[in-house]
């Protein structure tokens, strides 16, 4: 069965707290607002935290708008609407399971993941049910493998582009996704969600401002990237930033298309089939209904 959108109530604060991860694509997509290039319906206050901290905060209902791992969404869908914008999908790429080059992994190998609620964690657990999992901040996973604390680790964000030469890729999460999806669909990784306690007209205005921010950032990519680098707001150099934005902050990040929505529905179905969710959901049922404003003329 499918749950439907609940009604947004009328209580709201004067400012809106927008939480996102500190990785380059989230910063890139948000900073068109931070630099004053986009008008917002209320003051936006941004908070940058690692993705699993944001996932846990979403479960607690901490922030008005927050980045989440897509795999978490069915668990918070009654309290948060799914936004159309600031999304990251992998197309032929994604998180990577890495290990030392001379390491042979046993069935119960010890692995470091970036969080229990991440998309890569759900897909990894399906593919490697006997692995012994520990969770770490994504910035610490490569070192844990190098130091021998774990046998392997799943790299995410910018880490997939540059890691120690003594390490090699054991498995691509993309390949696990293809096998489970049974169809070549983009891999849903991260998106945004908004508290349903925000009034509907205000929620629509906030989402439209975020859509505009991602659109403006993409249109003025070279200028914005230069500003981020000059202010040391990203952890990577210019060539790596350019490559990373090609992957995860592009014209397909502005608003989800039909293929991305199909991929998201397939992810939720896979999660349901493997007992991660109580019931399957359809992404479109949980989006903010912009047609409400159109009907008001």
TrEMBL record:
It comes from the Bacteria. The active site is at 157 (proton acceptor). Keywords: Lyase, Menaquinone biosynthesis. Pathway: Quinol/quinone metabolism; menaquinone biosynthesis. Coiled coil: none annotated. One of its GO terms (molecular function) is carbon-carbon lyase activity. The keyword Zinc does not apply. Gene3D superfamilies: Periplasmic binding protein-like II (3.40.190.10). Its EC number is 4.1.99.29. One of its GO terms (biological process) is menaquinone biosynthetic process. It catalyses: cyclic dehypoxanthinylfutalosinate = 1,4-dihydroxy-6-naphthoate + dihydroxyacetone. InterPro entries: Menaquinone_biosynth, MqnD. Catalyzes the conversion of cyclic dehypoxanthine futalosine (cyclic DHFL) into 1,4-dihydroxy-6-naphthoate, a step in the biosynthesis of menaquinone (MK, vitamin K2). Belongs to the MqnA/MqnD family. MqnD subfamily. PANTHER family: 1,4-DIHYDROXY-6-NAPHTOATE SYNTHASE. This is 1,4-dihydroxy-6-naphtoate synthase. It comes from Hydrogenimonas thermophila.
